[in-house]
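Dear all,

This email documents one entry for the complex benchmark we are building for the journal club exercise. For each entry we list the sequence lines for every component of the assembly. Then comes the predicted three-dimensional structure of the complex as a token string, followed by one or two observations. Please use this as the template for your own entries, and keep the labels exactly as they appear.
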Amino acid sequence: MAIFDMLPVKFSLFTSSMLNTSTVVAITVFVTLLCACIVIGHLLEENRWANESITALLLGLVSGGVVLLVSGGKSSRILVFNEELFFIYLLPPIIFNAGFQVKKKQFFKNFSTILLFGIIGTIISFCLISLGKIAVFTTHSLLVTPPTTPARAFLLFKRLGLTSLGIKDYLAVHIEHMKIVFAAAIGAIFSATDSVCTLQVLNQEETPFLYSVVFGEGVVNDATSIVLFNAVQSLDFSDIDVFTALKLLGTFLYLFCTSTALGITVGLLSAFGIKTLYFGRHSTDREVAIMMLMAYLSYMVAELLSLSGILTVFFCGIVMSHYTWHNVTESSRVTTKHSFATISFIAETFIFLYVGMDAVDIDQWKESSASAGTSLAVSSILFALVLIGRAAFVYPLANISNCIKRRDGDKIELRKQVTIWWAGLMRGAVTIALSYNQFSSSGTSSSTVYPLLITSTIIVVLFSTVVCGSVTQPLINAVMLRNAKPTTSDGTDFASLDDLRLLFLENGGSNDASGNQEAPRSSGFRLLMRYPTHTVHYLWRKFDDRFMRPVFGGRGFVPVVPGSPTGAADDQTS
Amino acid sequence: MAIFDMLPVKFSLFTSSMLNTSTVVAITVFVTLLCACIVIGHLLEENRWANESITALLLGLVSGGVVLLVSGGKSSRILVFNEELFFIYLLPPIIFNAGFQVKKKQFFKNFSTILLFGIIGTIISFCLISLGKIAVFTTHSLLVTPPTTPARAFLLFKRLGLTSLGIKDYLAVHIEHMKIVFAAAIGAIFSATDSVCTLQVLNQEETPFLYSVVFGEGVVNDATSIVLFNAVQSLDFSDIDVFTALKLLGTFLYLFCTSTALGITVGLLSAFGIKTLYFGRHSTDREVAIMMLMAYLSYMVAELLSLSGILTVFFCGIVMSHYTWHNVTESSRVTTKHSFATISFIAETFIFLYVGMDAVDIDQWKESSASAGTSLAVSSILFALVLIGRAAFVYPLANISNCIKRRDGDKIELRKQVTIWWAGLMRGAVTIALSYNQFSSSGTSSSTVYPLLITSTIIVVLFSTVVCGSVTQPLINAVMLRNAKPTTSDGTDFASLDDLRLLFLENGGSNDASGNQEAPRSSGFRLLMRYPTHTVHYLWRKFDDRFMRPVFGGRGFVPVVPGSPTGAADDQTS
């Protein structure tokens, strides 16, 4: 075959000039592994203890190990962990799809609990983990200070011409301060529940309450985490007073409201645009394309304005499933429902695969140069703090929530509290991304504490994903489903909603009826006090039917079709 | 609002540490522009002269101009043109979708014509453009040599210790050689029809013959282009003989067959996997995900093996629409059909937007430092060569094809030849990407010829896209549709296929009938001579029904549903 003799050289020349071979290899490996994950995950579907995320994680670990062996122990990095890849391309579709497919009624019914857990809970957990870490630092002098801090402080002094003054005293104070900042950063990183992990482990159909509370908490505490993370980086912890606390609260409220408003605005804009222009007339693809692009746009604009992209895209998903989705043709409905789910599914699997492969990265283990014992000790302490930090807010807050709520069915029993506590323990890719961001970009290459913290983070993530991930489903089965009493669930809610509507009508609650306008208002107020959630829901539905749906479309204002992205239960109530 | 005083600083700190702001800005701008393109394209739908690609191109030009003005004439680059982005992420979904939605019967009916145009045509065009460019170089000494070539040759000499020998003579020969290589590169870049442009301008429903020939040519000549491009870079043009030509032909056949085989293999693998494992049992998303990933995998593996990724992914799309698509659940069928089309649509729009914005990049215009006149002159010469090069193979090859074909309906009339010639003139993003690859990565920053060629390429692309793109549809209407005689189209083909089947059955063509095995074979051979296309089609369908579909699934071997990705016309024949 003399003809082909010169082929290899020529072709490799061509490829190397055209595309970066390492990129092609990396993509090929990842796509192959993704296919393998899907097939294995499908085969293990019947197995209660395994799920797609654990499969992906383990497959990532194994293939990372194989690459390590093949490359002769040099490096297992095929793709370097990239925060940009994660936050710009992988996270938005996952969160958007969660908002798009969430059971809206269940979510908003538990909204007060979600906010309580997402805001107050995260702050409590943050404080506890930070304090715990400070305590550990004080006892173990090994970990007391990032080594470069004294040097930096010294330089600062020199510039200020204060070298002759009591440097030692100042350094001590400075080190103390850095210690606090450092511990607070760890607190901020580890206090947030990973919403991606939650999605994989909890099932919206089986345990709607648990899903909406734990996942909702994960979404809301993204805003909390941003505020805390920023506070850690810019605040002076030596003089925290009431004013600073109020300032932080104001910042949080600002972030939360603007992010939510942005998401809702973009969602409504897409609904209005698609309803007015009626793209489906010519092409289904345009409708689907504009929905995808608008959803992504909401996230990017939020990031551009330094808001919480996760909150924005989540609420954009909710609004799109409530209005936009009903304005498109039927094939677009099927396509969007499944393609959003598919993209999210691929992104989730990719993330776990990625975390698994990253864990076997030999470079960072070498860099940390700590013994296996130290790594394990630090990881154990971190995980213990996560356990305690979560326990410290779930139980008290659940009981506070129980005191406020009157109806028995709304109360969070102890067994539910246990599952909420346990299901939110998982730490995943978000934690790793934040940890890389905080501990590797600091430019302190000589430091051994930073790499140690990254490796410890990886150990915590691996452990919590594998252990919590596989134990959660059996735990839920044992605690929630088998012992489940016939509590007041969705079924009775519909009934009581109908009752409420009758009640309103009996009291002349129709706003059209002129004249006795005081009576319904006061009766409405009384009802609001007695059944707050239901009254808000009823008022919202009236507002929605009268003002929103005529403008933005939605069910009832376009030809009705069976099946909705949020499932049958939602059909009657959203 | 003292509370918010410190917000901006804190937030920008956070964002800058977390995500690269310029990336976020670039993505936001592009996504917004994509949305604008879709809306404007929708509003201009009724307009015959405009289409989505021209809208995107003009919008890209305008927004590039705005950025240029805003940045004070410094730079309009928001995203630098990136070959990797183009070849790895944008091109594969477009070509895959084209294969997935192509009318298979029409495509394979014209397969001989497509191969003729794609292989021989591209070679003729390549030779003509190269020769034309050499002629231009010889007359215009300005453009004779890339300035750095003599210096390079001198260095080579020095290293070889040959400085005392007749350098001037050698340099003359070397320059002559470089000139040829240089011209040949231009030939290779400009001889390929842009399949992405073709997709935008031609309509598969209205002009199936034209679409399949021109688009098919674009797909096949990707393999031809790779071979030519490699040949240009590695061959010695001073002694081209018959053996070299045979070698090139062998290389092409190797590339063509292996690429096609790889695509078919991956497609069949996906069909077999999905049929055997039956993913739909648990989740629609897994089916859709595995189809997307396998399709992408076929392209990446082809690139990894230095084959023609475009050919591979195109045939993978054909096989997937023939087998895999019929093995999945109905909602997966709707989802894949529309989501592949949507992704392809977004990628196409993105490419044209990108080309438009790239054209206003002030840096490369400054770099080329040639007067507007020179740029225009070079572009005109290039475009004229493209015109002549295409004319030189379309008319002769069409007539050769006419001589071979006997039936009147299969013949390519003059008006069809004109539209084939015209519709294939467009040069688009592929040309730009190849041009960047060839003329900017050569490391000759001091050269003015290379930037001049890049800017000329951009002018040619803009001109051909806008002019050819807007004139093609009206031209087709004028030439093809209005004067259309009732030719033998798909309708009569179905009839004659049924006749053929009857003919086979009368002759005892059923292979099951033992005994008289010689008779049907000889009659089959006679039929093959008389109606080659139909006989091949008939034999293929028998083979397909007997061996392929039972293993890999396909229509008839899974519950039949109305609607297929290739449309109604295909239902009876594919």
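Observations: The radius of gyration of chain A is 27 Å. Chain A has a mean pLDDT of 74.
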